[in-house]
Every structure is written in C-alpha cells, then in structure tokens.
Design goal:
- A 7-stranded parallel sheet has the order 3-2-1-4-5-6-7, sandwiched between helices.
- The protein contains 11 helices and 7 strands.
- The radius of gyration is 18 Å and the shape is globular.
- The protein is α/β, with parallel strands linked by helices.
Length: about 290
C-alpha cells in the first residue's frame, strides 16, 4: 500500500495544513497530498502566492483552503485556527514547515539575524503547535510534522543561529512525541541535509542573513544535489505512514548522525579538521 494511501485511510477526512506551503518542500507536500485527494490548508504570508499554489493544488486533485499566515505573528495563527475550524470542523495533519536560513560567525552575527531566525524557525513552530494542535486533540487523533534540519542534530560552524533554532524544533518534537502519545497523535520531525529548494531566497529577509564559508558551500551543494523538494516530501510521507519519529531522508544525514552519536569526539575532530582546511562543504573554491 502506498504510504499516502495509508495516511488517507488513517485520516478519512483528509485534512492537512501546511505552513510555508507556496514553495519548496511545503509546496511539494501540498501537491503530493492533493494528488491523493486531501484537503490542503495552503498557509503562507504572501496572498498572491497562496492563490497560485491553491490553483496548483486544485489542478492536482486536492481541495485547497487559502490561508494567509505569517508564522511570526500569534494573531495570524489564531485567525487561521478559526478559519480551519469553520471550514473543516477540525484538522488531521499539521505540518510546521515555514523557515528561513541564516548563517555567519557568532561574533559577526547581529541580534537582528538571531531574532529573525528564532522568530521564524523556532517560534513559528512553537506558535503552530500551541494554537493549532488543539484541533488535532479535539479530533481524537492526528499527526504533527515539524520540519527541522540535519543542522538541528549535528550543529556546525558559521550556522549557529540556524542550528540553534532547528535544534529547538527537534527537542520540541521529542517532547511532544511523548506528551501526545496518549492522545493518539503521532509526531515526526524532518531533518534533511541539502536539497533543491527556495530556502536561500532573500525574499522577506530584512538583513544580510547568509554569510560565511558554510553558506557558500550550502548554496553550491544546493545547485548540484540530486535531491529535490519532491524527494524529501516523499520520504517524509513514508515516515509519517510508518509512524516514525525521525525522518533523515538522505544517506549523508543518516551517516553523520550515526557517527556523531556513536563517536561524538571523533565526529567533532573530523568537522574541525575539514573546517580548518576548507575541505568538503567548507571549501572556498568555486
């Protein structure tokens, strides 16, 4: 049985809300759920992009619900919760996906960058959980998905603000997996490495958010990787269908996580060597 069909049978009302649904992973998830006949809450802060994605969702076979949502604004979540309740009577699957990428050395990163990273990447997930999870609780079952990053599991130089935010998302997800188990709500946290997406687009960024050799390496790898948003979406849906807590869709993510957990000092020494000698993702040549 296909994973998405299994989810459809588990949640016959097929109600899913996705934040950051107008590009990248969020849009890929929306279209894959739409192809299986789900109702999709298309949530993003740009109404024009929401409308365009809703059309694509409808063309793919889904039933879209347009939702204007800035994940840094509590009031927007309160409005969206009411809209979903009125339109659908509840919610089955919540995907906290919206995020931005920030990078730079700690001593060269201003408070503005930290605030934008934490407000979007961490507080946006916290707000979503606090204000939209009650819809799943009232339904008596459901699935919570939080999109983090391998950076939240591994850390790394030049991306402290991003890594701290994503580590918070991982920790929050681990806590909720236990807290919500008795209420028949599954939790999955997605921790990919590099894949093709719009994560590094500057739209909506008020300051210079991406500096340093790690950002350069990520951009270079993003342009050349064989993984696209659709691949990460398929992996995430499989993890959901299997009720898995962690989804590390790429081999390099799984290998690095295993190495860091099994041989933590060795992993840190290796990372330091690669960074000092500008090797692997830290290389400075084009």
């Amino acid at each position: 049985m296909k994973p998405i069909k299994r989810l459809g049978e588990r949640y016959p009302l097929r109600r899913v809300l996705i934040t950051g649904a107008t590009s990248g992973l969020g849009e890929a998830l929306a279209l894959q759920f739409a192809a299986a006949g789900f109702r999709i809450g298309v949530a993003s802060r740009n109404p024009a992009k929401v409308a365009a994605t809703c059309e694509r969702v409808r063309a793919a076979g889904g039933e879209p619900l347009a939702l204007t949502l800035d994940v840094t604004q509590v009031e927007d979540f309160e409005i969206v919760a009411r809209q979903v309740e009125q339109a659908w009577g509840g919610l089955d699957i919540l995907v906290n996906n919206a995020g931005i990428l920030t990078s730079g050395k700690l001593l060269e990163t201003g408070l503005e960058e930290w605030q934008q990273s934490l407000e979007t990447d961490l507080w946006g997930v916290i707000h979503g959980c606090r204000l939209l999870l009650p819809l799943l609780v009232r339904a008596g079952r459901g699935h919570l998905v939080n999109v983090a990053s391998a950076a939240g599991l591994l850390g790394g130089p030049d991306i402290a603000s991003y890594g701290v935010a994503k580590a918070g998302v991982v920790s929050l997800s681990e806590s909720l997996a236990v807290e919500l188990a008795g209420q028949n709500i599954d939790v999955t946290v997605s921790c990919p490495t590099v894949f093709r997406s719009h994560l590094m687009d500057p739209e909506g960024h008020d300051t210079r958010l991406m500096t340093g050799v790690t950002a350069e390496g990520l951009k270079r790898d993003m342009d050349s990787t064989g993984y696209g948003s659709e691949d990460i979406a398929r992996s995430l849906i499989r993890a959901m269908a299997r009720r898995r807590m962690y989804d590390l869709p790429q081999r390099d993510a799984r290998l690095q996580w295993w190495l860091s957990r099994t041989f933590p000092e060795t992993y840190r020494s290796l990372a330091l060597y690669l960074y000092r000698h500008r090797l692997w993702i830290f290389r400075t040549d084009s």
